[in-house]
User: What shape does this take?
Amino acid sequence: MSRNTQIISSISRKAKLNITSFIFILFIIISIIVSINPIVTMISKRNQIASLENELNIARKENIELLALEKSLYSNEMIKQEALKQFNIAETEDKIVYNVNEIDKLKRESGSDSIQNEEKAIYSNNNLWENLKILYYKEINNMDN
Assistant: This one.
């Protein structure tokens, strides 16, 4: 009996084809929707990379300019000019005329808080101007006397 019975499907062949094509199209649509988000993030990351590369190029140009400036500062002429400008030093050929106020000279000689006796003055690691005053009073002022 089992050989003679034939099971007839309740769904027609055309309906099966339509259901299969619908599932296939639905799968394609879902895969497109899911792949849009990575594509959008990839495009935004590419734009970020382009802007960061632009900033990197600008920074490299500035770095090259600063390196050129640094190299020019190592020349003897630039070192001499910078020293003259920073420490108000004159060149050896220039004459220096000092106009010292007598009251100011008496104050310095009488002993201010910052400058001690010429023999007792001690150089400090963190006070450049005080060290320059000590140098002046120890070395330069002694040469005048």
